[in-house]
Specification:
alpha/beta, elongated, Rossmann fold, Arc Repressor Mutant, subunit A, four-stranded antiparallel sheet
């Protein structure tokens, strides 16, 4: 999994945009740069997605109906969530940009924009903010999950995961002790371009179980529901939302 220089590592970015072609115009350059993208079309869907895993950045498209997105951003900052936020506006929308900055936006980009600038601004935001929307390091049994570096360790021993295995494990860790449906896990890896086989989640969970053997963490199957990450003691030490 990517580690080391933040400029080179894969970022996981949430795009909030209610117009499919505009969302594709934002997602395309970021995917081409190797980053993992999730898209929601309404701000009220964003909280549920953010609770399901670590994101490095959020891009809010304010070109059509900025009111709800700005209200969501204000709420995010009131909850002291440090997720870097880049807004996209039309060139003439100075009032919207000012309102977004007052609501807690970290940077802005005017449309039409150069795709290279979009990628560069997202990467700069993540570097500047340390790349974490929650606590960087979470313990789960004897596992150490470092979301900023995308590293998994059993004590001091690293465990190598593919990007999709990492996304599934991270989702399970952030929801440790509670049931997670297969549909949610599919969404956690939906940002990758490769096609998914019908039994993809079962295959990845099986691989994760093998890699987690002996760590104190265990993935249980809940028939008709999905999966749950079990751990021997208390829940992971991440800050509540």
């Amino acid at each position: 999994m990517p580690v080391g220089d933040d400029r080179l590592r894969i970022m996981k970015i949430l795009i909030v945009c209610d117009e499919p072609s505009a969302a594709a115009g934002i997602a395309g350059p970021l995917r081409d740069a190797g980053h993992v993208i999730d898209i929601v079309d309404r701000p009220d869907e964003a909280d549920a997605v953010l609770r399901g895993g670590h994101f490095d950045d959020v891009v809010l498209d304010l070109r059509r109906a900025p009111g709800a997105a700005l209200e969501w951003l204000r709420g995010l900052r009131q909850r002291r969530v440090r997720l870097p936020a880049l807004i996209v506006t039309e060139a003439h929308a100075a009032d919207t940009r000012i309102a977004a900055i007052e609501a807690g936006a970290d940077d802005h980009l005017q449309a039409p924009f150069d795709p290279r600038e979009l990628v560069a601004r997202c990467q700069a935001l993540v570097r500047r903010n340390g790349g974490a929307s929650r606590g960087d390091v979470i313990t789960c049994g004897e596992l150490v999950v470092d979301s900023r570096r995308r590293e998994l360790r059993h004590g001091c021993v690293p465990i190598d995961l593919t990007p999709r295995e990492w996304s599934i494990l991270e989702y399970l860790v952030f929801n440790a002790g509670t049931a997670v449906t297969k549909e949610r896990l599919l969404r956690a890896i939906a940002g990758f371009d490769e096609p998914l086989a019908p039994n993809a989640i079962e295959v990845y969970v099986s691989r994760l179980r093998t890699k987690l053997a002996g760590t104190g963490a265990r993935i249980s199957t809940l028939r008709g529901v999905g999966y749950r990450l079990e751990q021997p003691q208390e829940n992971p030490g991440h800050a509540p939302w």
